[in-house]
Queue: 4 jobs
Job 1
Amino acid sequence: MEKKAALDALSALSQETRLDLFRLLVTAGPEGLPAGVIAERLGVLPSSLTFHLNHLVRAGLITQRRLSRQLIYAAEYGTMNGLLAYLTENCCGRDALCNPACNPSDAFTTGESDEAPARARQR
Amino acid sequence: MEKKAALDALSALSQETRLDLFRLLVTAGPEGLPAGVIAERLGVLPSSLTFHLNHLVRAGLITQRRLSRQLIYAAEYGTMNGLLAYLTENCCGRDALCNPACNPSDAFTTGESDEAPARARQR
DNA sequence: ACGATATTTCACGTAATCTCGAATTAGGCC
DNA sequence: GGCCTAATTCGAGATTACGTGAAATATCGT
C-alpha cells in the first residue's frame, strides 16, 4: 500500500461514525449487512449513512453489493491489512518497536522509502 | 487504547503533512528533531508546522522538549503501538484475519485476495 | 401499472480544517 | 540593555466535512 491509499484509509477511519460503522461490519463478517440494519444499529439518518458508507467505499475499506432490494456492505479485510502493514513498516521505527507480539524477524526498510519527502514551498 | 484516543491518533495521521512529519520523526529516532529542521525538510511554513505539530502532540503521537533555543519533537512509539493494537483488535475481524505476517496460518479466503494480502516487499 | 420498501441524491447551513503573513514570546550572545 | 535567532500565537480567508430533510431512484409484490 502506498501513501495515498494509506491516507485515504486513515481519513476514512478518523471519524467516529465511520469507525463504528467499520467495526460493525468487521464483526458482521464477510456476509456483510444491509444499509438499513446498519442505520438502525448506529442510529444515524439514512442520508448521513450513505455519506459515510461512500467514504469508506472510496477508501476501499468496504464493498457494496446489491441483494434484491437492499444494498449489502461488507468489510474489505485486505485493505485493513494493508493499512496495518503500511503503518508498521513506515511509522513504527526499526527494531521490534511495534507489534512486539509479532516480533518481525526482518525487513524494515530503513529511511524513507517510496515517497519524495520535500515539497516545494509555495508562496 | 480506547476509542477516543484511537480516533485522535487516526485523525492526526490522516493528513499528508502530518503523516510525512510523523514518518520523519520515526526515522529520526528517539532523539527527535528541532522544529526548524523539520520545517526545512518538509518545506512547510513555520506557522503551519506548529499547527500540525500541536495536532500530533495533542494526539499523543509525538512529544516536545526544549533544548536551549530550539524545541525538539520526537515520536512517541508507544502511542503508535497502541493504535496498531487497537486496530488489530477492533477492526480486523476474528483471529488470524489481520497481520498475516504474524499469523502465517492463512486459512481464510473470502474472495478478497485481489489487494496485497501480505506485506508487499517494496523495492 | 400501482404501491410499498430500501436507499440514494440533492441542496443548504454550519462547523471544522488548513494555509498564510504579521506580530509576539523565548532564549542565547555581544 | 540591545540584537539575533527559534518558534509560536494571532487573525483572516478559502476550502472542505458533516448533518439534515425533501425529493428521486431502484426493486419487489400484487
Job 2
Amino acid sequence: MTDQIVTPFRSESHNHKRCVTDAMALAEERCARRGARLTRIRRRVLELIWSRHEPVKAYDLLDQLREEHRGAAPPTIYRALDFLLAEGLIHRIESLNAYIGCGDPSHPHLGQFLICERCNAVAEMDDDDIRDLLAHKAALQGFHVNWQTIEINGVCPSCRAIPNGTVSGNETDTPADRCR
Amino acid sequence: MTDQIVTPFRSESHNHKRCVTDAMALAEERCARRGARLTRIRRRVLELIWSRHEPVKAYDLLDQLREEHRGAAPPTIYRALDFLLAEGLIHRIESLNAYIGCGDPSHPHLGQFLICERCNAVAEMDDDDIRDLLAHKAALQGFHVNWQTIEINGVCPSCRAIPNGTVSGNETDTPADRCR
DNA sequence: TTGTCACATGTTATTCTATTGCAAACAATG
DNA sequence: CATTGTTTGCAATAGAATAACATGTGACAA
C-alpha cells in the first residue's frame, strides 16, 4: 500500500527552508518535463505559497508580490494561481478561499484536506479508500463523479496537546511557530 | 439501515409545490420546538431557496427579495442565511458560494452533496459510512474532526441519459425542467 | 536579421460575495 | 410601562475574482 499522506502535519523536526527548495525543485522539474513555462512571476507566487506552508489568500499573495513587483494587480495573482492549479502544483481550499502547495505534483490528484481551526495547519491526503467509497456511494445514486472536494475541519494533533483555552499570544504566526 | 439519502435527485413524479410546503412546514415545526424565531424575512428567504430546489446565490435571493421588500440589502440576506444555516434548515455549498434547502432539518448533520455540472441539480446524502471513514482516516493522523465539507461534482443520472453534446435550449430553467 | 505567432503580462474597470458599525424598530418579560 | 435582547434598516466598505483590451516577450521560421 502506498503512502496516502501527501503532506503530513509539520513536526518539530521540519526543516522548512529545505521543504521549500524541494518543492520548488519538483515544480521546476515537472514544468520542464511538461513544457509548461514556470515564469518568474509564477515561480515567485509558488514560492510565496510554500514559504507560508498553510492556506494563503490571493490578496495576501498580491500584497507580498507588490513589495517586489510594482504593477502587480489582481489578475497577476489569479493568472499565476490558475497556472499553478492547472499544473497540479497547488490546491485550492474552497472553504477558506485560499491556496496551498501540493506535496506531490508528480501526478494529478484530488486530495483530501485536514484543516486545523486553531493553527491553520493543513495536512493533505490522497486516500484511495475515501475516493473509492465516495465514487461508490455516488454510483448508487446513478451519479458519475468528475471531481471531489473534501475538506475536514477540526483540531490537529499538535493543538490537541495544548489545553483548550490556551492562547499562544501571537495569532499571526505560521503553523510551525504555534503548533508543536 | 436508515435511508442515507436526504434529498434525492428529483424524479418526473416530483410534486414541487408540495415539496416546498412540506419543507416550510418542517421548518415552522422545528423552529417552534426550538424557540427560534422564523420571522417573515427568514421564512420568505427559505421559501425562495426551496422554490428553486437547486443551489441559489445570495445576491439572486436579494434580487428576488427586493421585488417585494424594498430596503432589502446584503445584510438582510446574509442574516437570514446565517439564521437558516444555524438552525440546520439550509446548507452552504462551498464550491459554488450558494445555498440549498436541507431535506432533513430534524437533526443537525454535515451532509454530502452530489452536484450535477450539467443541470445544477443537487442530491444530499447523510451517509454514516462516509462520515465514519473520514473520521477514521483523520484519526490515523491524530486529527479530531469537527466538520466535514464533502462536495462531489459530476453528472446526475438524468443528464447521463442525454447525449453529451445535446443542449436543452433554455439554460436558465430549473433542474426539474431540464433533467428527466 | 526580421517577421510572425503564441503566450505572458500590464492596466483599468467592474462584478460578485460578504462583513462592519450604528441606529431604529420590535417583541417578550417582569 | 419599562427594560432587555433580538431583529431589521441603512450606509459604507472589505474581500474575492473576472473582463476586456493593450503591450511586451520569447521561440521559431523565413
Job 3
Amino acid sequence: MLSHFTVDCVIYTFHEAQLKILLTERNEYPYKGWWALPGFFIEKDEEMEDAVKRISYENTGLKDIYLEQLAAFAGVKRHPEGRILTVAYVALVRYENVKNKVKPVTSYMKQAKWYPINNLPDLAFDHREIIQLSVEKLKKRLSYSLAPFELLPEKFTLTQLQQVYEALLGETLDKRNFRKKMNNLGYLKELDEFQTGVSYRAARLYKLDRRKFQKLIE
Amino acid sequence: MLSHFTVDCVIYTFHEAQLKILLTERNEYPYKGWWALPGFFIEKDEEMEDAVKRISYENTGLKDIYLEQLAAFAGVKRHPEGRILTVAYVALVRYENVKNKVKPVTSYMKQAKWYPINNLPDLAFDHREIIQLSVEKLKKRLSYSLAPFELLPEKFTLTQLQQVYEALLGETLDKRNFRKKMNNLGYLKELDEFQTGVSYRAARLYKLDRRKFQKLIE
DNA sequence: ATATAGTGTGTATTTTTTACACTATTAAAT
DNA sequence: ATTTAATAGTGTAAAAAATACACACTATAT
C-alpha cells in the first residue's frame, strides 16, 4: 500500500551540564500549540538521511552532524487523519556550534527551544515514546559509542565527559573510578591546555583520539 | 510524500548446531528467481507487527513468535520502479515447532528454504545488508538478550546454548568458563531430565527462569 | 587572608575473566 | 565382555577489572 512518509529528528546537545533536546511548537493542525520533534514530510527521491540533514540544518544551522537511525513508527492511530509512517533519527550536535540558538518563526512552527531531557513538556503524537526509546538506545550503547564526544566540544574536561555519562545513565559516578577507567581505555589524549574563564582551578582539557577509538572497537 | 510500504522479515532458527535464516525464491519481477527475505506489502490499516506475524505465520505456521524491529530501509534506488520503503523485523523461532518445514509454492514465491547464516546465496534488493545488520544487532545485545532462548527448545542442554552463543559471536568459547558464567547469571534452572536418543552420555537439560531473567535486567 | 568552588590523586578489596586437561557416561561395534 | 567413539561434566590459579572511599590543591573574588 501507499503511506504518508515523514522523518522526525531527536536532536541532542549538551549544555549547562544537562542533556537537551530540540523541540518545536506546532502552528498547525493537528496538535496546534503542542511541542513536537522537528520533522517533516520527505520529498520524492530524497534519501532519508538527506531529509534529516535538511531538518537539522534548518534548526541548528549545522551540516555534517552525527546521525543514527532510531526506528520506524507506523501505528495506524498515531495521526488523526490516518497512518503516517515516520522514521525517527537521533542527531548529536555541539551546543557551541549551533547557529540559530532559537529558530525563527515559520508558518508551521511558532518557535524552537532546547529542553532538558528530564523536564519535557507534553508532546504531540507519539513523540514522548520516540524520545524515550532514543534515550534508552544511547544509554545501552554508551560504553562503545562516540556519542559523548559528538555532544561535547572538541576539547573537553573530564568532568564534562563524566556529566554526559551521568546524564545518559541517570546516575552519579565516582570521580576517581571514572577517570581511572577513561585513562585505561586509552583513546583520550591529554592536552597541555586548560580551561579559561573560570573562577576556580582550571581543569585540564582532553581530546578524543579517533584512530585509537576505531582500533579498539575493531 | 506517499511511498510504497512493505515489511521484510529475517526469521532465525537454530538447527543442526547452526543459525539459519528463512529465504524465499522470488517468482516475480524484479529479481525473479533470486532469493529474498520473506516480506510483503502492508495492508491499509494493518499494524506493522501484524503484517510481520502474517508473513511469519505463512512461512512457519507459527503464531506468537518473538519479534523485534530492526530498521527502516528506504533508499531511493533499492527498487527499480522507484522507492519502496521497507521496515525490517527480526523474528526468532524454535525449529522443532516450525510446521511447514518447506513452504508450498505460491504465485509470487517458488519455494522457501532455511540457509545457514554463513552460507547465504546471492540476495535480491538490499537484503544482504539487512541480514548483516540483523546479525550485528543480535550479537551486540547477546549478553542481556532473550534471543538464545527463543531459538532453542524450552528444554535445552548447555552445549546447545553455547553453540547459539558461538554462532552469534562468530568465535568458539571455553566450555568450563561458559558454564561457570551461565550458572553465575542465576537465571538457568537445572532440570532433573536428560537428553534421550543419543549414543553417548546424555546431557542434562536446563530451562530459562524468565522471572529471574526479568529481575536481573531491571 | 580567607572563603569558595571545583580539580586531581592512590590504595585495598572484591568481582570477573581467562587459561587450561582430565575423568565420567553411554551406546554401538567388535 | 571388551573396546571404541562421542560427548558430558568438572576446579583452580592467575590476571584483570570494578568498586569503595577522603583529602590536599589551585585559581579567583572579596
Job 4
Amino acid sequence: MLHEEVVSRLRDMLLEGEVPPGARIPERELCLKLKISRTPLREALKVLAAEGLVLLLPNRGSRAARLTDKDVHDLFEVCQGLEALAGELACERITDEQIKEIAEAHHAMVANYRDGDLAQYYRRNRQIHEGIVAAACNPVLSGLYDSVTARIRRARYLTPMTPPRWAIAIQEHDAILNALQRRDGTGLAHILRAHLRHKREEILKAGFAEIDSVRGLAAHENGNNESAAGRA
Amino acid sequence: MLHEEVVSRLRDMLLEGEVPPGARIPERELCLKLKISRTPLREALKVLAAEGLVLLLPNRGSRAARLTDKDVHDLFEVCQGLEALAGELACERITDEQIKEIAEAHHAMVANYRDGDLAQYYRRNRQIHEGIVAAACNPVLSGLYDSVTARIRRARYLTPMTPPRWAIAIQEHDAILNALQRRDGTGLAHILRAHLRHKREEILKAGFAEIDSVRGLAAHENGNNESAAGRA
DNA sequence: AATCCGTGTTTTGAATTCAAAATTGTGAGA
DNA sequence: TCTCACAATTTTGAATTCAAAACACGGATT
C-alpha cells in the first residue's frame, strides 16, 4: 500500500467515525487492520495531525481530533472565504458544460428534497459545492477546500436539518445556481457566504460539538470504538 | 529534537534555499546535520510534502518543490482570498492596541522605504500582513495563511522591486492602514486584494519561476547545494 | 479506607536492519 | 565511438529492534 493510500484510508476512517472524536488511536489495531507496520502508519498520523484531523500528544500517543464550537466557527468562517473566492473565480472560468452538470445536480437535489431523502440530498449538495470549487481551476484552492471541508464534514453532514432550514437551504441553492448561470461572481460569493453562515448557525445551535464530544468520550472511556457511538 | 522542531527546521532550510528548488533532498546529509535518524526525518518530509514544499517521488526520493508560474498564480490568488477575509474579520475584531502596533510597523516600514533598505522593508511588510491575519483571531485562517505564504515566500521576498512598483506599494499600504483604522472591512479587503494582485503581476513579469527553476537545476546537475545558487 | 510508593507491563519514539528498487559504472559488441 | 547489457553500489521504503517514557497494578503506610 502506497503512503498516500494509507493517509486517505486513515482519513476516511476518522471521517466515518470508525475512530470516534477524542478517542485514542490504537496503533497496534490499525497496523493489523491495514496490514502495515508502525512506521508507515505513524508517517500517516503525522500528516493527518498537520491537517488537523489527529491530535499528537508527545509520549502519550495520538487521538482523533475533537472539534470545539470555536473550531466549528473558525472552520466555517474560512470555508466561507474559500467558497466565496471559488464562486468568484468559477464565474470567470466555468464552461457551459460544467454549468450544465451543476444544474443537473441541483435539480436532482431538489428532487431529493421533495422525496425527503436527506442522504442523497447531502450527496448532491456536496457535489454542487465541489463542482463550484473545481470550476475555479485552482488546485491550491481545491486542496485547502478539501482539507477544511474534511474537518467539518461530520458537523456538516451529520447534523440533522430542521424542515424550515431545509426549505431555506433550497432557496439559497436556487440563488446559487442562478448567480452561476448569470456568471455573477460577486453575487455568487455573497449568497455562498450567507448559505454557509446559516449552515454554521444551524450546527452551532444544535450543539454539535457537545454531541460529538460526548460520543467520543463514551467511546474512549470503555475502550470501545464501534458500538459505543450508538449506545452513547 | 521534537517532531515539530524537525519539520520547522527543515521547512526553514527549504525556504532559505539551503536545499534549492528542484534539488534532490539528501536524506543522509540531513540526518547527519540534524543528528537524527532517517525515521523522524522521513516523517517530517511527508508532512512537508503534504504542505506542498516537498515533492515525493515514489521509490526515487524527494525533491524540494519548484514553483511554476501557474503555481505562483494560484497561490497568490488564494492568498488574496485569505488576506481579504482576514482583513474583513480583523476590522471587526482588532483592538486599538493592535492597530497601534500595526501603525508603528507601517511608519517604520515607510522609513525603511525612504532609506532604501529593502530587507528591513520586507521584514516590516511581513509583520503588517501577519498582524492583520493575527487580528482576525482565527487560528484556522492563520494556519492556512502560514502554509500558503510559506510556499510563495521566496517569490514574494526575493524578487527585486522596481522603484515605481515600490512607490505604489507604499501608497497601497497607506490605504491599508487607513482602512484598518477606519475599521472598513470591505475597503480593506479590496485594497489587500489589489495589493497582492499587483505584487503577483510584478513577480510573474519578472519571470520568477524561470529564475528559480534555473537556480534549482544548476544546483541539481552538479550535485551542489550551497554555492551553485550564487553561481547560477 | 485512602493515599503513596515501587515494581512490572505496555506503549511510544527513534535507531537499526533488511529486502526491493533504482542508479551507477564497466565492458562487450555493433 | 556509441550503444546496450549486466553487475556492483547506493538509495529507498518498511519491518524490526531497543531504550525510555507512561501506565497499571499491588502492597505498605498513615
